[in-house]
Amino acid sequence: MKRDKHKKDLYICNSVYQLLNAVNLRMNVFSEDAADVVISDICPDHERTAQRIRESGLFDSVYAVNSKFIFRQQYKHTRFRVNLYRVDPSSLLRKAGPIPKGKYDRYITAAFDDYISMLFVLLQRRNRHIEHIRFEDGGMSYVKDHACVNDVERRMQRLFGIVPLGSIRAPMYLYEPELYSAGDGRTVLPMPKLSKDDTRFISAVNGIFGVAEGEELRQKAVFFEASYQADGLKTNDKELIELCGSILGDELAIKLHPRNGVNRFRQAGISVFKSDMPWELYCLNYDVGGKLLISVTSNAAISPQLFLAEPPRTVLLYKLFQGKDVLLEIEEYKDYLAKILKKCPRIRVPEDEAALRAALLEGVRE
User: Going by DSSP bridges, is the β-strand pair 271-272/252-255 parallel, antiparallel, or unpaired?
Assistant: First the structure.
């Protein structure tokens, strides 16, 4: 792969979806740059994943770090100690693992957290002109940005010229730029869509995630369970899933949410889809164009509409949902949903049981 010696990028990844999209940018947008990547322990099996990335040769240096503790540790210190870390985060970052050594031109992240913002302080000391770039991380990328700046960071900017990461309205790469709803004036750019025909990309990400042939979804429809039960929220999601089961019968499977830890649908006779393959990779390795994805607001059901060139049908049940869903309380997220319905004709949002029945039956008969 050709490298541009004049540009060097650093990617930070906290999840499977972030790493998938980072590889997309690496291969299809910034392919001529030199590039390193950081994989945090928020990403499952991050040490083995880091080793497979090294073997792929896609990045020049790969850093596996244990940064998850930083967020928790912030609340174990006095305010003085927390602010001291923001001025000079070196000692705390070293506890997380090796600190990237390069003088970087681009800092490319999907998320905003303490590790990411503190590392940016150090990188600016090496290159005051470093550029921050954001990229797709599911539905919340399209709505309100929760990055913020505190008083200590403002003083650092005044005294030392260190720009707080939270103050930068960085350009953002999204699969559907026109759906961006935050209204903060940032530049939004298109991410290349993913296609089953891009065998080079699929081979690369399969190797990085150690993907072997997994269980194929036999049923025509799959319901993505949310974590309401694990979060202690009283909702009607179980009733909605069982209603879908009564309509679709053997054509429905359920993808259980790992945090719930129990199958609530055994008595209802709904089959469980047990593939260990990350869902985003499943969509690239198997034909999901003829499947029906069902959810209240799960990103797993919505994201294929964004990143796939040929997405499946989707039915969202948020208008039939009763209970607390944090996303549905965010006005920008509601705006995002309204936009995605206009943009994506393969999504249905039934408002009553009759409309639900019609949408489900239409979806599996396609």
Answer: parallel
Q: Which residues contact 33 (CB under 8 A, 6 or more apart)?
A: 3, 4, 7, 8, 9, 105, 106
Cα separation, 141 vs 96, in Å, equals 26
Residue 6: its pLDDT value, please?
73
Strand partners, 292: 221, 313
Give 3-47 as a DSSP string.
-EEEEEEEEEE-SHHHHHHHHHHHHHTSTTEEEEEEEETTSTTHH
Global pTM? 0.85
Distance CA(112)–CA(99), nearest Å, equals 18
Angle, helices 237-248 vs 353-365, to 10°: value is 50
Distance CA 327, CA 339 (A): 15
pLDDT category of residue 159 using cuts at 50, 70 and 90: low
User: Which pairs count as long-range contacts for 303-308, CB under 8 Å and 24+ apart, including other chains?
Assistant: 303/17, 303/138, 303/139, 305/340, 305/344, 305/346, 305/347, 306/136, 306/174, 306/175, 306/176, 306/179, 307/21, 307/136, 307/175, 307/191, 307/193, 307/194, 307/280, 307/283, 308/193, 308/194, 308/195, 308/283
Given this model, what pLDDT does residue 143 score?
83
Closest CA to 86 of 44, 128, 120: 120
Give the CA distances from residue 83 to residues 67, 149, 348, in Å, rounded to whole numbers and listed in that order: 18, 12, 48
Task: Answer whether residue 337 shows pLDDT above 60.
Answer: yes
Backbone angles phi, psi at 56, to 5 degrees: -70, -25
Name the strands in the sheet holding 313-316, side by side, starting at the edge strand that comes first in the sequence: 271-272, 252-255, 221-224, 292-295, 313-316, 347-348
Rg of the chain over Cα atoms, rounded to whole angstroms, equals 22
> Within 13 Å of residue 181, how many CA atoms lie on the same side as its CB?
18
Q: What CA–CA distance (Å, rounded) separates 138 from 347? A: 16
> Quick one: CA torsion of 160, 162, 167, 169, rounded to 10 degrees?
130
The torsion angle over the Cα atoms of residues 91, 93, 99 and 101, rounded to 10 degrees, is -70
